[in-house]
Amino acid sequence: MRVLIPDAKFTDPADIEREAVGLLTGGSALAFIPHHEVQQADIAPGEWPSCEGVIAYDEVRLDAPWLKRLERCRVIVRAGVGFDNVDLETAGALGIAVCNVPDYGTTEVADHAIAMLLTLVRGTASYDAAIRADLDGGWHFARAPLVRRTRGLVFGVVGLGRIGLATALRAKAFGMEVLFFDPYKPTGTDLALGFRRADSLSALMAEADVVSLHTPLTPETRGMLNATAFADAKTGQILVNTARGPVVVLDALLDALRNGRLAGAALDVIPEEPVTRMADHPLIRAWRAQEPWIAGRLLLSPHAAFFAPESIRDLRRKSAETVAAALGSGRLLNCVNRAWLSPQRGWSTTA
């Protein structure tokens, strides 16, 4: 059985994937077909209808026209947590299960969110930049604009899934009080974890000193942090986004930083990536120029929160294991389109 990897993020011939499946099955008939640095449209047309499975990273978009080419495909594994680049409903109607890998970089993203916050509130990057620019004048503790005590801050978490919970526990270890908003978590979650629960995003924004985003990108969350949300924000709040860029409206963030409602922001993700695609946005221009009003208040990283050599190995192994489980035994791990999944290709909707 052939497994197409149309946007492989590695250069070897799927060594980790083959090893993972071999360890699972004692020698599987799965053949992994990776394409490296190739545009989706440039893959030979015959590759799509001939594969039984697809492992997709984040550069392909599997919408209805592309899904209909997958004549034999039974499962798509999104090599990552987010799955907004796959049309779940159409895939389900075609009998194609869509699964993700939600647990490969949980600790890395949580660490990154806390690291970005600490960079701002302990001023490490600002101090370094000030000293580099002026060895004498930069040697002063007041050169970082956002330094404050972390103990006692209200750490607001939007989305208390695996990563949100891991981040919240780290914040709690630093002495912060955790407040979360997640309407999909059952009653009592707050009691079990020793956190406080906000009944709305507005309530969380009004009380949190820090807001850390950990939601998937869905129609519900797209643009969730908009002008209305920032108008509700506690003055001096810091925003951290290691989730998805389009959750935050960048124009609204610019206004909130300019008018002082927000003290700072740390963004691992932005609405359009890479950052060259948004180089002309006023916020990015001001950040690059280090205009006085924003210097030391905005921190960017290149959608890197997930990354560590260990997490990439985990991602590749878990993606291969998920494909093997689906095609080998019909077991669906982390299926994200079960609600639309037609049984026409042999899937049980309760598997």
Task: Explain how this protein is built.
Belongs to the D-isomer specific 2-hydroxyacid dehydrogenase family. It comes from Azospirillum rugosum. The chain is α/β, with parallel strands linked by helices and 351 residues long. It folds into 2 domains: 2-104 and 308-345, Rossmann fold; 106-300, NAD(P)-binding Rossmann-like Domain (Rossmann fold, 3-Layer(aba) Sandwich). The protein is 34% helix and 16% strand. It has 13 helices and 12 strands. The chain has helices spanning 15-25, 47-50, 64-67, 88-93, 106-121, 124-133, 162-173, 189-193, 201-207, 227-231, 250-258, 282-289, 309-329; strands at 2-8, 31-36, 53-56, 75-78, 97-100, 154-158, 177-181, 196-197, 210-213, 237-241, 262-267, 298-300. Strands 8-7-6-9-10-11-12 form a 7-stranded parallel sheet, sandwiched between helices. A 5-stranded parallel sheet has the order 2-1-3-4-5. Helix 3 (64-67) links the parallel strand 3 (53-56) and strand 4. The longest helix has 21 residues, at 309-329. The mean pLDDT is 95.
